[in-house]
Design a protein that fits this description.
Layout (H helix, E strand, L loop, with lengths): L1 H4 L5 H10 L3 H5 L6 E2 L4 E4 L2 E5 L2 E5 L7 E4 L2 H4 L1
Antiparallel strand pairs: 1-2, 2-5, 3-4
């Protein structure tokens, strides 16, 4: 699987789902302000939601933001 996604535009999102347990739309809804490369953490604050005219950011299923350490394979 990892070989199959290497170089794909969704590689990082797929790795986040596999290695960190994020939901698909949470991974796709990340913004740069949610990523801290200095200490290797990510905060899940919102997710990408399909609406009538396209896509928008919306709340996650969890009400509170979740912070976690990124797997080393994503940022080192």
């Amino acid at each position: 699987l990892l070989e199959g996604i290497r170089g794909d535009r969704f590689e990082v999102a797929i790795l986040l789902c596999l290695l960190a347990g994020t939901r698909e739309m949470e991974a796709l809804g990340l913004r740069w302000r949610d990523v801290n490369l200095q200490n290797g953490t990510i905060i899940i604050r919102h997710q990408l939601i399909r609406v009538k005219d396209g896509w928008e950011f919306g709340p996650t299923k969890d009400t509170d933001p979740r912070a976690f350490r990124m797997p080393d394979t994503l940022w080192k």
